[in-house]
Predict the structure.
Amino acid sequence: MTTRTTHPSRGAGPLRPGAARPAFALLLALLLLAAATLASIALGSLAIPPGALWDVLTGHGDPHHTAVVHSRYPRTALGILAGACLAVAGTLMQGVTRNPLADPGMLGINAGASATIVLATAYLGASGQADILWWSLPGALAAGLLVHLIGTRRGGTSTVRLVLAGAVLAAVLNALIQAVTLSRPEVFDNYRFWVVGSLAGRGFDTLWTVLPLAAAGLLAALALGRPLNTLALGDDSATALGARPARTKAAGLLTATLLAAAATAATGPIAFIGLAVPHLVRALLGPDLRHQILFSLLLGPSLLLAADIIGRLLLRPEELMVGIVTAFVGAPALLIAVRKMRKDA
């Protein structure tokens, strides 16, 4: 019996008996995202019955139900955008570094955003959601670019240097954050609500601010699927096939930085979405990064919205911030990934 394979330069790995067909999986992913979106605008401290939700969506709803549903639109839309950005950024990170434990936090983006927020609050009088957004975005981008520059040497990207650069930069910035927040309690009060990660309290203005960066990053990521597949062959083989590994790696890391910075600036640091979703997609669809990027774009929002819904329902009428929920969900995913790596070693 022979095993059917595709040409490696096209990036599709061997077909496995349990692998889902991409078209069928795409339909399921779209249905799951639609269900998560509807649940996000229907569930919360006040649950909207299906019939009442339909009336609101068709413009014939009760005024109270209509006001509640409309208030959840920005939160849901931001969850979709942030989930897509974080999941795709994680997929790019794992594809470029060939490290299944890589996620956007490796680039020091969270620490960079946090540091600029703390410094702006302490010394420039920044306060409120708008100020946090505008100060966190350049900090996140600057940190990601700095880690990329340190991890790049003579046109090539070293995974070890990248990881070390991210760890060192995060350690330095976290020490700075602690020094400032401990000496200025009023700064800590402003910072602690952002650092956990949440979709609550954001409006469409936040979405419109980060949307151009997020859209550019997602489009670039979709275009990188085929070039990134060649990296699995090794740099020498990829070069022999006409690819440019150094340029592809740089583009992948810069795109991941852009996506993670946009999501982090809008919602605060939300862990494990970028780690768990790529593993799930890879287990379902195999190693083809074209499929991984597309399905991460769909499953990331579903997972983030589901976590946000759980946080709203667990402590109703209060709520648990989504960053805490994803940490509880993502920790088992990390353990599973580590165990799988040990079995494959």
Notes: Strands lie at 152-153, 156-157. The two ends are 27 Å apart (CA to CA).
